[in-house]
Design a protein that fits this description.
Number of strands: 6
Low-confidence stretches: 1-18, 443-447
Strand content: 5-15%
Order of helices and strands: HEHHEHHEHHEHHEEHHH
Number of helices: 12
CATH topology of the domain at 6-35 and 122-287 and 330-445: Outer membrane efflux proteins (OEP)
CATH architecture of the domain at 6-35 and 122-287 and 330-445: Up-down Bundle
CATH class of the domain at 6-35 and 122-287 and 330-445: Mainly Alpha
Structural class: alpha+beta
Shape: elongated
Distance between the termini: 7 Å
CATH superfamily of the domain at 6-35 and 122-287 and 330-445: Outer membrane efflux proteins (OEP)
Strand order of the largest sheet: 2-3-5-6
Length: 447
Amino acid sequence: MRWIPLSLLIILTAGGGLSAQVLSVEEAVETALIANPTIQAAAARAEAGNSRAKQAKGHRWGRLDLAETFNYSNNPAEVFALTLNQGRFDFDEFFTSDPNNPAGLSTWITSLDLTLPIYTGGKIGTRIEQAETMAGAGHETWRHAGEQVAFDATTAFVNLAKARENVELLTKARSTTDAHVKLAEAYAEQGIILTADLLDAKVYLSKMDELLEQAKNGAQLAEAALNFHMGADQAIPRRLAPLPPPQTVSGELGDWTSAAVDRRHDLAAAREQLAAGRLETKAARSGYLPEVAVVGRYGLYDDTIFGANGHSGTVMAVAKINLLGGIADGKARKAAELDTVSFEADIRRFEEGVRLEVRQAWQDLETARARHATATDVLAAANEALRVREHRFKQGLDKMVDVLDAETALREAQTREMVARYDVILSTTRLHFVSGATLIPSMEESR
């Protein structure tokens, strides 16, 4: 269904998979597109839709059935007819016996029946078109599932990178706090600061230990989440390559909104389903038109299974028209029309929902960019503030609590800048996803 790089298959089938190598976000997405059960299920459903379309076309060729039937009867008419069919009718025996009370007769009938539709009022053609349309919907659903898997894997990759950077920030912050505690201990021994200041520093260090432990647990969970979206064992360790720059975002909001309504695969699938629903009304109308078929039968008759002592054939032309089907036919047609009306309303709602998603993603990206610009300035100020506080503390001009407050401000500024920076990446990725801009060009080239 889609091309998979041979090199990636070799890596996946190797003993440790990708765990022993540095994993890039592109490789994470490629792995997810192969191993994630969501895309596998969508691919299977798409193939099932293709098979149903072929099945519908097969009805044009009619039906050929082979059957073997055993019949035992002492019914006078049946015994007479089946004796003829077996080729064992004896004229003299018929008149010398009592035809009203014949002995029971065993008959094996091998029949080959062919039914070939000539005209069905457009029903077969409509069902074929309907099945092909639903196959198209399945294909669009598969493509959207691929985009969803790629988005989820990318998001998980970014979240893991963010969680690990958070661990690094807190590790450095904890190291800084530990250095301040050691300095405070030395000053306390010399009587330069109060013991209370030293205790404040130790309490702050314990808080840093707690935050660091929470961050490590969060990073482990983020790693498990990435493996989950990649369709891999959640316990596999991952070494991450640096994230590439965010995708470019140009144009205006209206451009992205219009593009989303045109190219979203899940919306395209819904439109295909709507088209198939409209065809249901056409199929219901065909029930009022005549149907013409040719029926042929060839039979073998004998008193042993698959015997061929007697044989005969029949060819018939059959025409029928539905004159009265009670209220069922009319109600079925009305139900199909109402289903179409309801689904049209659902599609309009869907389109508005897509526009809203794009608007929200666009505004989230603008907000993230503004927050990151502000956070960068705040971080620079916080670094300078801590430097000044440390200098003044060493000169005995500031208290330990002032240094700890500056540390807290710096840590919060670092966290704020980090979160805003990753939010820019995540918001950019989400904008591309909700607008239908593909995250996986290989799927666009497949099929």
